UniProtKB/TrEMBL annotation:
PROSITE patterns: WGR (PS51977). This is WGR domain-containing protein. InterPro entries: WGR_dom_sf, WGR_domain, YehF/YfeS-like_WGR. It comes from Spartinivicinus marinus. Gene3D superfamilies: WGR domain. It comes from the Bacteria. Residues 1-74 form the WGR domain.
Length: 74
């Protein structure tokens, strides 16, 4: 699981990513984001391989880090 956070004078946000395999052998990338202290929003994308899911996860983490998010894996 990757947990990222962003805080400045005006906002306090979180972004969480988790890759897991489903019962049918597909791979899901679960994304949750929103304001810290709220439930936020959730999106699940499904992929045929772990490598595809990991590539999308890596791209999203890179984008968020460019925007000032920090954090790491747990």
């Amino acid at each position: 699981m990757i947990q990222l956070k962003y805080s400045d004078e005006k906002s306090h946000k979180f972004y969480t990513l988790l890759i897991q395999q489903d019962l049918f052998g597909k791979w899901s990338l679960l994304r949750q984001w929103g304001r810290i202290g709220t439930k936020g929003q959730t999106q699940i994308d499904t992929f045929d391989s772990y490598e595809e899911a990991r590539a999308v996860q890596d791209r999203l983490v890179k984008e968020k880090r460019r925007k000032g998010y920090s954090g790491c894996c747990t």
